[in-house]
Amino acid sequence: MTERNFTTIIPGWYRTRDGALAEVLHISDPRFRDTYSVRGFINGVKTDWKGDGESSTHCGPARPGSLITFIGTEKPKETRMVKKTLTRWANVYKSGVIGNFTTKENAEESSFGCIACVELTGEYEVEEEV
User: Fold this and answer.
1) pTM of whole model > 0.70?
2) Whole-angstrom Cα distance, residue 116 to residue 93?
3) Which among 44, 49, 43, 55 is positioned nearest to 11, based on CA atoms?
4) 79-93 and 114-129 strand pairing
5) How far apart are CA 78 and CA 43, in angstroms?
6) Which residues pair with 11 in a beta bridge?
């Protein structure tokens, strides 16, 4: 079971045990003796928690909706990994020198003495905000 990284719940943003983003908006005064005194949302769905962060909507020992990690008082930026493709052109010269160009046209313009014009492609991933 994942341990919490906080001792007191305050309004703000949390990660749940199953990795969802949760927003705590309201905490009732303990004198009301509400069983689920912490209120907020997980992915836009109204949710209640006990004062210790245990979820009211999930049962069992794992309780995936329980608050585990305090993120902060401002909503974190959501990101995703995006694949990008990179294409370049390389002119190879008899001397062993290689010229790198962003377009085939640029490579062909500078091809005097070139023994080969080679297309180079590659993929990479970057993290972008949603």
Assistant:
1) no
2) 7
3) 49
4) antiparallel
5) 12
6) none
**Tokens found for residue 16:** 């749940």
Token couple for 79: 């990101």
> Quick check: helix, strand or coil at residue 16?
strand
Q: How many residues does the chain have?
A: 130
8: its two tokens = 């007191």
Each residue's pLDDT expressed in tens, for the chain with a length of 130 residues:
567 777 788 999 999 988 899 999 999 887 788 888 899 999 889 999 888 888 776 555 567 788 999 999 998 888 889 999 999 999 999 888 999 999 999 999 988 889 999 999 999 999 887 7
**Distance (Å, rounded) from C-alpha 52 to C-alpha 47?**
14
The residue among 20, 14, 27 whose CA lies nearest residue 74 is 14
CB contact at 8 A, 8 and 70: no
Residues whose CB is less than 8 angstroms from the CB of residue 101 and which lie 6 or more positions away in sequence, other chains included: 88, 89, 90, 91, 107, 110
